[in-house]
Predict the structure.
Amino acid sequence: MPTLKPARTPACLLFLLLLTCGLLPTQAMAQLFCVWDPLGAGGDYFSLFKDYQLAAKRWGINIDLKPYVDDTELDAAFRSGQCDMASMIGMHARQYNQFTGTLDAPGVLDSYAEVRDAMAVMASPKLAKYMLSNGYEVVGVMPIGASYPVVRDRSINSLERAAGKKVVVMKFDKTQPMLAEDYKAIPVAVDPAKMGDAFNKGEVDVFIAPMVLYKPMELYKGIGTTGGIVRRPLFELSMQVLVHSDKFPADFGQKSREYILTQTDHALGIIHNQEADVDPHFWIYAMHNELTEWKTNMRSTLEHLTKAGYFDRHMLALLKRVRCKEDAQEPDCTPTPDQQPAAAATHP
């Protein structure tokens, strides 16, 4: 007698129908991670996220990586939903999350030691609720380096001496023109991918840039024999990883933030190598009293931009705590007389 095959149950048939029609989620579907790296797939940051890709697989998440050299194109692809997740500079991330976007505000951090401490704060579970905003989640933050004034004329070695000079600013960022105008400089808005060309061709006098852009944009051409790089950071730039929060499990964000925190020293090592690649003759240094004045001026500009609504005061308070822990002698870390604790009351 022929063997009878067991009849399929209605529930089994329904499952097969849903699976065939694509109505059931499958773990085989990979999420697309769009990665910003000025050197594309051959860059250090793209390579770093290959390790992240392996870590995500251990959490049950399959990820495909796609490199972008233009941060503006990446932002458009992420916003339209072409990318499930994306890494972008903090200034671009600010439009999605003002809290984390405040990391890239002028003058909030002064050293890489402070940056390392700030990265640890960002990965704290206590801040998880601040990582969610309008359907997006910041699932990791890492440093990409200090942003220095790159000048075509070495005499432009202070904020005051930038008065009347043309400063290239990112077309999408409203804070950089205000920063330039605070010091009577002339902001020239340019697409990020074309900023290096504008500087090298002499269309602008100053380009505020991290050294991750030094080689890809060939900034040494614009520096030439008369220019240099003022070794006083206006910003400590971050790279932030964002996701469409409805496309990932609820616990993915915290796992991701904690993993990316473990890559902080790796990222700082990349920054060190990028800055070491700069011709040492290009660096322009300052006296200690000039540094103090620089910091005071930057704090004043920061307050101006914060009052205008561009930065998150809660984040600024956290970063001030980080900064004052590293250097309690900072001008804004010493309590003023009206901030001193009141003396304890005494009883007769």
In short: The longest strand covers residues 136-151. The longest helix spans residues 288-307.
